[in-house]
Amino acid sequence: MLQIRKAEPADRPDWERLWRENCLHFGAEGMSDAVIDALWQRILEGSHPMYAWLLSDGEETVGLAHAIIHPHTFTLRSVCYLEDLWVTPSARGRGMATAFINHLSKVGKSEGWRRIYWETGLDNEAGQRLYERIAKRRAVAIYDLDPGA
């Protein structure tokens, strides 16, 4: 049976294992322990609008989602940026990502969020097939600017 819950201090080993898998997959395997420690503290301490949810399949923790809840200029309702959604490869194809997004949608409805949004790689065809079924694609381009460069 699937269980989705907000991360708690005792979840650090499972969260870190999944986060490191995610980082390795996306080419960020060089993330320092100090950054990982600080991210975990941000998630737990509550002074940042960053949250982590973990998904268990009844035997082990197989997925994580990071979300940032923030204000929006077009509404007084908050919006949710789903920054990370990761399911360990051995657990994919069993509806885990769908369960995560459905869970966040229920949380958003109960907390009055205006919307949940996320981005995905153009090469993430499996993810896009899921997202096309449950959400509306926006016609936007995303730009990154490093202010320190």
From TrEMBL:
Domain of life of the native organism: Bacteria
On whether Transferase is a keyword of this UniProt record, the answer is yes
* UniProtKB keywords: Acyltransferase, Transferase
Q: State whether keyword RNA-binding applies.
A: no
Pfam families associated with the record? Acetyltransf_1 (PF00583)
Q: Which InterPro entries match?
A: Acyl_CoA_acyltransferase, Bact_Acetyltransf, GNAT_dom
- Report the Gene3D superfamilies cross-referenced here: 3.40.630.30
Describe the location of the N-acetyltransferase domain by residue ranges: 2-149
Question: What SUPFAM superfamilies has UniProt attached to this entry?
Answer: Acyl-CoA N-acyltransferases (Nat)
Instruction: Quote the protein name from its UniProt record.
Output: GNAT superfamily N-acetyltransferase
